[in-house]
Automatic annotation (TrEMBL):
GO terms for molecular function: catalytic activity. It comes from Marine Group III euryarchaeote CG-Bathy1. It holds the Pfam family DcpS_C. InterPro entries: Histidine_triad_CS (IPR019808), Histidine_triad_HIT (IPR001310), HIT-like (IPR011146), HIT-like_sf (IPR036265). This is Histidine triad nucleotide-binding protein.
Amino acid sequence: MNDCLFCKISNGEISGDIVYESDSVLAFNDINPQAPTHVLVIPRKHIATLNDLKSEDRELVGEMHMVAQQIAGEHNLSESGYRTVFNCNDAAGQTVFHIHLHLLGGRNLDWPPG
Ligand code: 5GP
Ligand code: ZN
C-alpha cells in the first residue's frame, strides 16, 4: 500500500513518535491528541478497516490490545482507567484507512462518545 500514511510510518518513510514496536505491531503518539495519553496501535500489515479483518488476524488484534494494556500501564492508567477504540468507516469518523486502536487516557472520558 504505497499511499497509506500508516504503512509509511510503519516502514519509516514518514517519521512517527514511536512508543512501541515489534515485528507485527507499532504504537505511536497521535499527532492531534484528544487526551493527555493518545496513542495509536497499528498492525504493520495493511488492513483498511475492521470489516477487512480475517480469521488469520485474530492473534494480531489480540497483540494490539496487549500492547495497549502495556502502554496504559506505563502511563499509570491501569487503575484510573482508559479507553480503547477502533473507528470503522465514515459514520464512526475513520479518516485513516489502516486499522488503528486508539488508546486514550489521562482525563475523564465522556460516555457516550459524540
Ligand atoms: P481515525 O479518525 O481514523 O479513527 O483516527 C486517525 C487518527 O490519526 C487521528 O486521531 C489523527 O489525529 C491521527 N493522525 C492523522 N495523521 C497522522 C500522522 O501523520 N501522524 C500521527 N502520529 N497521527 C496522525
Ligand atoms: Zn497501510
